[in-house]
Amino acid sequence: MKGICGKLLDIDLTTGKTNTIAISDELAKKYVGGRGLGARLLYDLLPPHTDPLSPENVMIVLTGPLTGSMVCGSSKFVVVTKSPLTGGWCDSYSSGRTSIELKKAGYDGLVIRGKAAAPSYLKIDDRGAEIRSAAGIWGQESFTAERMLKEKEGKGFVVTSIGPAGENLCLYACINSDNYRQAARAGVGAVMGSKNLKAIVVRGSGAAEFHDRARVVELNRKNYELARASQLFQARSKYGTSLTLNVTNAGGILPTRNFQYGSWDQALGKLDSVGVYKSVKAHRSCQSCFVHCSLMTEVTEGPNRGEVFEGPEYETLGMFGSNLMTDSLQTVIQANLRCDTLGLDTISMGNVIGFVMECFEKGLLTASQTEGLELTFGNDAAVLRAIELTARRQGFGEIMSRGVRAVAAQVGQGSARFAMHVKGLEYPAYDPRGAFGAGLSYAVSPRGACHRRAWPPAKEILGGYPPFTAEGKGKMVRDLYAENCVYHSLLVCDMPAKFIPVPLSSYSIEYYRAVTGVELTEADFDTMAGRVETLIRMFNNREGFTRADDWLPERTLHEPMLNGPAAGQCIGDERLNRMIDDFYACQGWDAAGVPTPETLRRYDLAEREIAG
User: Fold this and answer.
1) Which of 501, 549, 494 has its CA nearest to residue 74?
2) Sequence-ordered strand ranges (E) for 203-307
3) How far apart are CA 564 and CA 185, in angstroms?
4) Is 90 exceeded by the pLDDT of residue 168?
5) Which helix (H) or strand (E) holds 236?
6) H or E stretch including 158?
7) 7-202 adopts what CATH topology?
8) What is the pTM of this model?
9) Can you tell me the distance from the alpha carbon of 333 to that of 340, in angstroms, rounded to the nearest whole number?
10) Where in the chain is the domain with CATH 1.10.569.10?
11) Alpha carbon 490 to chain centroid distance?
12) What's residue 301's pLDDT?
């Protein structure tokens, strides 16, 4: 089988020993790579009920079979681990050159175990891995650490690192790659910090062998012609993901004032596509992608004035903009930049701040309880201060660093009803009261409230599906999950797929065959997706998650939306239960969310398939 190296580099930071784990062709066909292979590895290698911040947790960094092949959008990698924020399954994605250099060094990925005796970083090249001292680099912000390591190791090395938030074990710390790309969700940066691992530095000189490179080039040319004719592609290439704010505001699902409202016209012309475009200085794309959806914008205020950085993306515009009632693009940009350099997930950080602001609004918190940090809606200076305190776990930031579920438990007084999370992972920037399928997707997602498992607004806001009904949503979400599972196992970005659009079959059949030489059908990939999602469900069930964890906050269920197209809408217990029943049935799980024996046989899910 082409396109894969057939091995993972297995590193024990405690002992300093390295090994390899073989990945057979059969295993690669069965689980593909990325999320799929990560599910098998985590289930097999992690002892049940492991403390996520203990040396026994494993951190798995994976590429996919199309990585390094020039396939459009194929420069992503995934970090798979047990989340310290939720206590369950975690897969977090990023882009950049790390995945490509890993492949060039001869590895499909890394398995990192144990804990270094002192702050360290990993240097990986064609000869293997070396654990090096991070003295003088530990404590540095992420962008500075990346610069220092590139200067130290030399030309061609790429750096994936954590900032102070990861070092301080903030439970929603992220991992930075190529400065502006983050594996952000569910605390992967805290897991890396718990291992005393500041960075991974990689350079390779080889390349995986590909079956038919000329066919890859031919497919890229064909799909580029599709892109040139697509108005949606042209709009996304010009405005990036900021265009999504126009969609969510019009659809009534834009989080506003900690998800109290679903539309905020004050953001238009300031935080939307038009507003962001005024500050754009350049456009960027990931390596081997022709969707230039990353915007380079200028910082015109604050300590980073004059700097041009990559962002902000829609999620940050929503969570630091409308959600906190600020219409200042520069405040959002500064918040984005500080989260990136300190190593914080902007989604979770914006969500936590919004919750604290509502607590202030309702009189449940005062400045005396937050050590002088007065987080009120529209207080931009306090937002920037809260980011610093959280990353360093100082003052009230120590409580905020634990996530919105923990803050609500600390505040009490009924505040949990508007703590917007599922399984402990904070809501992203879509309010499900305007798209009930999004509510189901959040509820059943194994990593918690997640917009990357599926994006139901594509159907319910843009695609003509009735948004305010439970009917048909179980199958709709199951099918969207399966589609994204294929993308995330191949480890290709779904931007080209969704916005050119390149059909799923082009990736799963045409590109896959051209790169690997293996013939798989659409039905084969659908089976793979069902197998992977079922295995992830088995993992969470093993860790103690039940149907009761597939639930939504009281605000989403019982508080009618206050404005916009979804005014008066809420999902309610009965509708959510009906959607969950339908989703479980489509997945082959019983009413408790446990995969049935028939499903395990259908997917050939053995208890253990990887030794290590």
Assistant:
1) 494
2) 280-284, 294-298
3) 29
4) yes
5) helix 231-239
6) strand 158-161
7) Aldehyde Ferredoxin Oxidoreductase;  A, domain 1 (3.60.9)
8) 0.97
9) 11
10) 213-426
11) 16
12) 84
Return the structure tokens found at 409: 């438990």
For 22-73, what is each residue's pLDDT tens digit?
A: 999 999 999 999 999 999 999 999 999 999 999 999 999 999 999 999 999 9
pLDDT at res. 292: 81
Within the chain, which residue ranges are assigned CATH 1.10.599.10? 433-602
Alpha-carbon dihedral of residues 584, 585, 591, 595, nearest 10 degrees? Answer: -70
Work out the end-to-end distance of the chain between its first and last CA atoms, rounded to an integer number of angstroms.
23
- CA dist 490 and 64 (Å) reads 5
What is the fold, at CATH topology level, of the domain defined by 433-602?
1.10.599
Domain with CATH 3.60.9.10 in the chain: 7-202
Write out the CATH class of domain 213-426: mainly alpha
Question: Which DSSP state fits 465?
Answer: -
Cβ neighbours of residue 576 closer than 8 Å, sequence gap 6 or more:
439, 440, 443, 470, 551, 552, 557
Count Cα neighbours of 96 within 13 Å in the Cβ-side half-sphere. Answer: 23
Q: d(Cα 267, Cα 422) in Å, to the nearest integer?
A: 27
Mean pLDDT in residue range 183-197: 98
- Name the residue among 277, 492, 327, 319 with its Cα closest to residue 420: 319
Residue 506 and residue 512: Cα distance in Å, rounded? Answer: 8
Burial (CB count <10 Å: 0-12, 13-18, 19+), residue 592: exposed
Strands 7-12 and 109-113: parallel
Torsion of CA 554, 558, 563, 567, to 10 degrees: 150
- Residues 86 and 447 sit within 8 Å (Cβ to Cβ): yes
